Hints:
alpha/beta; UDP-n-acetylglucosamine1-carboxyvinyl-transferase, Chain; 2 domains; 4-stranded mixed sheet; 14 helices; 26% strand
Amino acid sequence: MDKLEILGARKLKGTIHISGSKNAALPILAATILSKKKIILKNLANVKDIETIIKLLESIGSIIKYSKNKNSISIHNKYKLKTFASYNMLKTMRGSFLVLGSMLARYGKAKVSTPGGCSIGVRPIDIHLKALAKLGVSYKIIDGYVHAYSKTKLKGSKIKFPKISVGATENLIIASSMAEGITILSNCAIEPEVKDLVNFINCIGGKIKWIGKRTLKIIGVNNFKEGNYKIMPDRIEAGTYLIAAAVTGGNLKISGINPNIIKTEIDVLRKIGIQIKTKKELIFISGVNKIKNINLKTAPYPGFPTDLQAQLMVLLCKSKKHSIIKEEIFENRFMHVAELNRMGAKIKTKGNKAFIEGNTKFKGAELMATDLRASVSLILAALNAKGKTTINRIYHLDRGYEKLEKKLRKVGAKIRRVS
């Protein structure tokens, strides 16, 4: 099993270009099932989660061709597809569950495994299923599979989500795009990745419009056309490298990202003393010697993202005073804390709060990654640490970061993968 070895205490300097967004690509790939025509997707990150959903699409009959560098693919669903998504295809990540909405939209039936993913907390599917029922879907869960069907074409409805859910919003956008009549979705997630999905569906002939901050109007269509679409950049990757520069006291230029989509993250970094300048598609960041403390909670967009909570915690370990992070999205997302404490951090957790003492001098250690974002937080700590750090179980990392070691080496990190 692969592991990473990192020699720390080096400032990062140079330019990092941001890859396409994993979290935007997954629902868009699921939504390609809607069209019988050829679709070209560009700016796909070469990461495990995207590879997994592409294998799922191939398993149900999609004809897929890769470009030479695998960052662009063509998808053709001209033949009838299977409406079965097996556990083997969904056990490693939750995003694959979004094929449920597209199968129901196009064929009125689906048998889809309940999803897996990393162990950061329970992510129930009841919000998805109860909302789909309002479009006319009947369902049962038998032996870990959702058996869903509609006797007639899905019918538009007014649906208010009981709480903000990115996955449920995306599944209902996809399903409603072919429903008869008009669907109004309210209390929607408004993450940039959700808006990228809307833009993609409209690109292939959908009729979806934002009519309020968290409200969508969807007019169902019968058929979709060909499309050529570029996936948005990965804001979580961008935020991770911004924090990497800050925690090492380095200077980085982050290219290929619109600063507006990570405004909250930039504002937080500035608040704790980091120097950041922005231009169109460019962010310049300079690390500082003194990090200010902060009390912060994660929240749905435009709040601070849970996917950057672990990385920010590493940076707050370098503050001179106490900080508090309150995790409001997932109930089990402090698994990195024990590993950071093994490196010299002083962090205590109580319920959904982490209390960070600060003044940490990280020391290299042998570590175990527990989930995708925890993996990269350990890398950030290792980049700052004195001595050698070894991180095991990095298959989590490969799910969501493209060419991470190569990008970090390019800006001065001493990092290598060992099989």
